[in-house]
Specification:
Layout lengths: L2 H16 L4 H16 L12 H16 L6 H5 L7
Length: 84
Amino acid sequence: MTALQLNTKKLEIIEMLIGISDEKILAQISSLIRKSLENPSEHIPGLAYTHEERIAAVREGMEDIKAGRVGTDEEAFKPYEQWL
């Protein structure tokens, strides 16, 4: 990711944060950021981090597709409608 792309992503995140009025959500986000800064070697649980983890996540996704465990775009974006 280029420096410009990184800064653009940061601005997008700031815009999303501005739109959040739920104090509980803001506290969770703040805690996550604080923990990430305190332990930069750790990653966010559930997100592929190493090359091997990313490959495993892609393989798992492909298996889900083969098994019919898929949803629509609408279902995927539903929880985020308030920010989109």
